[in-house]
Amino acid sequence: MFTRALSSLHPTRTLLLGAAVVALTAMPAAAQKATQAKKSEKLAWAKAPPFLPAGAMMAVVSGDPTKSGPFVVELSMPSGYKIPPHSHPTAEKITVKSGQFLYGMGDEMKASEMKTMKPGNSGEIPANMHHYAKARGKTRIELSSTGPFVINYVHAKDDPRTRAN
To answer: Which residue in 11, 15, 93, 149 is a FRET match for 160, CA 20 to 30 A apart?
Structure first.
């Protein structure tokens, strides 16, 4: 019915009406992007928790990673930052916000087997899957999962909580 009504209008009116419909449809998406940008600016960034290697910053977007239930955090990593082989008891979804996020699967960090994720790319890592990561350039990711968030390093020597200083 909507298509029939458009086709009965003069071509100029159809174009104007079409533009108005597009503008009204796009407005919520634009407003949503602006809200997300403001939310990102307002994040409370702090040093990442001690279960991650030193050098990263983390901000909680929603939920509480220390409690049961869904959560979303952002992690900002300097170029060259590495997270050694580890796993989590819950699945995690990663979305790259900026920079390049390299990842691999397995018990040993192998640069030749790492895959690259660029801004806008996302993927999910299943629960208990051994994986590792590295930042190329200053990199920011969004991580969503279910808490409480736990990280289990494959090799005890890689765990920053127990490594000798």
So the answer is: 93
Residue 103 near residue 110, CB atoms below 8 Å: no
What is the pLDDT, as a whole number, of residue 42?
A: 87
| The 3-state secondary structure of the chain, one letter per residue | CHHHHHHCCCHHHHHHHHHHHHHHHHHHHHHHHHHHHHHHHCCCCEECCCCCCCCCEEEEEECCCCCCEEEEEEEEECCCCEEEEEECCCCEEEEEEEEEEEEEECCCCCHHHCEEECCCCEEEECCCCCEEEEEEEEEEEEEEEEECCCCEECCHHHCCCCCCC
Copy the structure tokens of residue 97.
């916000």
* Torsion 132-119-139-135 (CA) sign: positive
Cα–Cα distance, 12 to 4 (Å, whole number): 16
